[in-house]
Design goal:
With about 750 residues, the protein is α/β, with parallel strands linked by helices. It has four domains: about 100 residues, RuvA domain 2-like (Arc Repressor Mutant, subunit A, Orthogonal Bundle), CATH 1.10.10; about 180 residues, Tex N-terminal region-like (Orthogonal Bundle), CATH 1.10.3500; about 120 residues, Nucleotidyltransferase, domain 5 (2-Layer Sandwich); about 110 residues, Beta Barrel (OB fold (Dihydrolipoamide Acetyltransferase, E2P)), CATH 2.40.50.140. It is about 45% helix and about 10% strand. The strands form four sheets. A five-stranded mixed beta sheet has the order 6-5-4-7-8, sandwiched between helices. It has a five-stranded mixed beta barrel with strand order 11-12-13-15-14. The longest helix has about 50 residues. It starts with a helix and ends with a helix. The C terminus is likely disordered.
Length: about 750
């Protein structure tokens, strides 16, 4: 472990060096981010998951930089060109770009104009010109005329020398850094529609004649322009401040007015046009793409987190409906564990319109399986099916809930679904997924590729490796934050438990199927390939309902069971009594239990968990209903105010489902009466909001919405980091009051 790296990371992230060192050591030993942040607070200084992940990512970057540094040193050493000064310079380089700039002159390259000129013996002339000494340049250049080497004239000699100088300038580290800075700070993205592609590229209309400063271009615009270029709709160029670039380059190399100086100027001009500009433009494209990717992935990850942590209905008997018109609606009954009990097809809509038969089937299944809630997919025919179900005169206690079915079709055709339901068709599988998603969004969504869930921004255009790691981090974080019931969990959700992975998850399920329910956490040690390290990482995040040891239902790690037993013994009570009595817990003097390995942060966590063992950290479920009578885009009118659910948040605004099969967009400028630079400052995925219809374009299927309905229209959330900004009193009769009134009807 490099002390230099530890100090660097500590300084960059404003963390204690000893905590960074301990965190890196834990990561190197195979510990996961959730485990480290939850169960090793003493050694990390109570770093949260974000900080631990930042340390992990930065140490990986620095180690990758070291690998590249070693490869470069080896290459230059083999060329016998490595000097102590050059080695020191390479070792001091702090970024990959700086490292590559230093290496450029020594990098093996194909045959260039400069190498051809050197083969003709013109390098001494290039050196003479580049030094710009007071000499008779014509006389000196004439000495290099050599017909055998195809240097037939004075101009041939000077042109060859300029080719060599151009390459020197292009490979000059300071020069490249200076030009790169000008590209970044003053360059402009320019996009233009290709001739004849106006109709085909209608969706890129905003970029047909577009200019965006490289330094300020929002990520979604950069990605949109790049996609337009990739689809051969747009021509995209990065236009630098050429005059300033030339001045910067000349200031480094031109020493005054002389014949040689003029030749250097010509070489610089050629260098910029032929070598420097294309090279730096490629770099800027990569830099801007990386920045745009990171911003888009950050938005995607945050949206995904909120979707995964959406409030679960819980274990209820559910009737789930995958709606459809011509093909009918698939109806499935699920028990409280999500097991498929029965499925049928009903045809309440045109063209069959078998309303009475459909009504009878819904009533029969609800009675037969003691149904407590009905989940209806929000896709095609979703609102119509919801309206139909509400007319079937069901008991009032049965909740009817519209469920976002994004990705359900992906699941139903997946290997996971085929393995779960080998004898059912995709429509039945889709209906099951909709029902389970209502019961426990997290457990069902982990079975679907996150990119198919529709909460991202240009997710197919960003760095797929970076996207996968980021989304994996989010899923792992959410799964371990909530905890997993060991005896009912699917192998898909077990895969994301700290320390497990696909093979161990599969082995756990197989063991459970063969031996029955686990009776204790320690029993999973009997699972094939479950070693001590994997057990250590996973155990605290697994739950066993009604276990003999009450601590197995909690987030208290087994390594702390002895400590809790001692606490109970000291109070002359059982562990169960300690968990049930706040009065007993208040008598604990935590300082008494501090040791070299266990400090107050862990002890505080233990006592907190004893008070609410295994409690789900997600918010309580609240049903939601769209406005009656508004089911299609054509039903909308400008000025109409109606409730909706935020389905996606991007930098430029929020998409809101208002129940018309087409999400509307609340542009960032329409979110509040104050300036907002990022929609996520105001709204979150799954948030319930009131919106006003501003514009409806039926042909383009675009709905513009606004949330400027009062001093504030944003529902408060205990979990929202912006809630504190929004806690001002609302005006009497505001849209916030209307939303609360509507929500109250559906609880």
């Amino acid at each position: 472990m490099s002390e230099f790296h530890i100090e660097k990371i500590a300084k960059e992230l404003a963390l204690g060096a000893k905590y960074v060192s301990a965190t890196v050591a834990l990561l190197d030993e195979g510990a996961t981010v959730p485990f480290i942040s939850r169960y090793r607070k003493e050694v990390t200084g109570s770093m949260d998951e974000v900080a631990v992940a930042a340390v992990r990512d930065r140490i990986e970057q620095l180690r990758d930089l070291d690998k590249r540094r070693a490869a470069i040193l080896k290459s230059i050493q083999e060329q016998e060109k490595l000097t102590p000064e050059l080695e020191a310079k390479i070792n001091k380089a702090e970024t990959m770009l700086e490292l590559e700039d230093i290496y450029l002159p020594y990098k093996p390259k194909r045959r260039t104009k400069a190498t051809i000129a050197k083969e003709k013996g013109l390098e001494p002339l290039a050196t003479l010109i580049f030094n710009q000494e007071n000499v008779d340049l014509t006389a000196e250049a004439n000495k290099f005329i050599n017909t055998e080497k195809e240097v037939n004239t004075l101009e041939d000699a000077l042109a060859g020398a300029r080719d060599i100088i151009a390459e020197w300038v292009n490979e000059h580290q300071e020069c490249r850094a200076s030009v790169r800075t000008l590209f970044l700070n003053k360059g402009v993205f320019k996009s233009k529609v290709m001739s004849g592609k106006e109709t085909e590229g209608e969706k890129f209309k905003d970029y047909f004649e577009c200019e965006e400063a490289v330094a300020k271009a929002p990520s979604h615009r950069v990605l949109a322009m790049r996609r337009g270029e990739k689809e051969m709709i747009l021509m995209l160029d990065i236009v630098p401040p050429e005059e300033e670039c030339s001045e910067a380059m000349e200031s480094l190399f031109v020493k005054g007015k002389s014949e040689s100086g003029e030749q250097v100027k010509l070489a610089i001009k050629d260098c910029f046009k032929r070598l420097m500009k294309p090279s730096i433009e490629t770099e800027i494209r990569m830099i801007s793409k990386k920045k745009a990717d990171e911003e888009a992935i950050k938005v995607f990850a945050e949206n995904m987190k909120l979707l995964l942590l959406a409030a679960p209905l819980g274990q209820k008997n559910v009737l789930a409906i995958d709606p459809g018109f011509r093909s009918g609606c698939k109806v499935v009954a699920l028990d409280r564990q999500g097991k498929l009990l029965e499925f049928n097809a009903i045809y309440p809509h045109e063209p069959q319109r078998k309303t009475s038969e459909a009504t009878a089937m819904i009533r029969l299944m609800c009675q037969k399986y003691d149904i407590e809630a009905i989940a209806i997919g929000n896709g095609t025919a979703g609102r119509e099916t919801e309206q139909f179900v509400r007319t079937t005169d069901l008991p009032k206690e049965i909740q009817i809930v519209m469920v976002n079915e994004s990705g359900a079709s992906i699941y139903s055709a997946s290997d996971v679904a085929r393995e779960e339901f080998p004898d059912q068709d995709i429509t039945v599988r889709g209906a099951v997924s909709i029902g389970r998603r209502l019961m426990d969004p997290l457990a069902e969504l982990v079975k679907i590729d996150p990119k198919s869930i529709g909460v991202g921004q240009y997710q197919h255009d960003v760095d797929q490796g970076l996207l996968k790691q980021s989304l994996d981090d989010v899923v792992i974080s959410c799964v371990n934050r909530v905890g997993v019931e060991l005896n009912t969990a699917s192998k898909e959700i077990l895969t994301y438990v700290s320390g497990l992975g696909p093979q161990l998850a599969k082995n756990i399920v197989e063991y459970r199927n063969q031996n029955g329910a686990f009776k204790s956490r320690s029993e999973i040690k009997k699972v094939t390939r479950m070693g001590e390290k994997a057990y250590e990482q996973a155990a605290g995040f697994l739950r066993i309902h009604n276990a003999k040891n009450p601590l197995d239902t909690s987030a208290v790690h087994p390594e702390s069971y002895v400590l809790v037993d001692q606490m109970a013994k000291d109070l002359q009570c059982s562990v169960t009594e300690l968990m049930q009595s706040e009065e007993l817990r208040k008598k604990l003097d935590l300082k008494k239990y501090v040791s070299e390995k266990v400090g107050l942060p862990t002890l505080t966590d233990i006592v907190s968990e004893l008070a609410k063992p295994g409690r789900d950290p997600r918010e309580q479920f609240e049903a939601f209903q769209f406005m009656e009578g508004v089911q299609e885009v054509k039903d909308l009118r400008v000025g109409m105010e109606l409730p909706g659910i935020v389905t996606n948040v991007t930098k430029f605004g929020a998409f809101v489902d208002i129940g018309v099969h087409q999400d509307g967009l609340v542009h960032v400028s329409q979110l509040a009466d104050r300036y907002i630079s990022d929609a996520s400052e105001i709204v979150k995925v799954q948030q319930k909001v009131m919106v006003k219809v501003v514009e409806v374009d039926i042909d383009r299927k675009r709905i513009a919405l606004s949330m400027k309905l009062g001093n504030t229209n944003v529902p408060k959330s205990k979990k929202s980091p912006t809630a504190s900004k929004l806690n001002e009193p609302e005006p009497e009769g505001s849209m916030q009051d209307k939303l609360k009134m509507l929500m109250g009807k559906f609880k």
